[in-house]
Predict the structure of Putative NADH dehydrogenase/NAD(P)H nitroreductase H261_13529.
Amino acid sequence: MGDILDDRARSILFQAARTHSKFKDTPVPDDVLRQAWDLARMGPTSANCQPARIVFVRSPEAKQRLKPALAPGNLDKTMAAPVTAIIGHDMEFYERLPVLFPHADARSWFLGNETMIQGTALRNGTLQGGYFILALRALGLDCGPMSGFDNAKVDAAFFAGTPIRSNFLINIGHGDPAGLYPRGPRLDFAEACRIE
């Protein structure tokens, strides 16, 4: 085995990390978002396809474009968050495969196969969104990932004329512990896993 993270690092990424609904009024610098991407992009994707595309919604104008797509329960917390990331995936990710996976003709695997394109884009884009959450936590930020929005409205407002489709949102900032709910229970190993 390689190096093992110490207890503090594991806590930052998993045990102490929480899903935040309320954030402090502390800005999130662009450079930290870039650092998070630089970490997250190193996570594995099938055939190194890297379909994730992220829009960081920060300006008042961009927040107003996002607002009509939000479910009522997500409206106030998203409008107040310093940054909201739209995690999307490029439905034409395969066009980059000659560069990203040059040792095989991986592009040909997808041409004309919509089922494979959709499954690969969603699965790997979601993986990359998960890596991004861990990268943000590793850099000292808190996250509030969520569904609860109208994907078609988000796509029209932020991805019109592109092959990118939204998947989920992440509110990002420095979490306010006063807004935390009690931690929900987790399934134990025997409930969720088996070894055969």
User: Anything to note?
Assistant: DSSP finds nine helices and four strands in the chain. The two ends are 22 Å apart (CA to CA). Strands lie at 52-57, 83-90, 142-146, 164-173. The first strand starts at residue 52 and ends at 57.
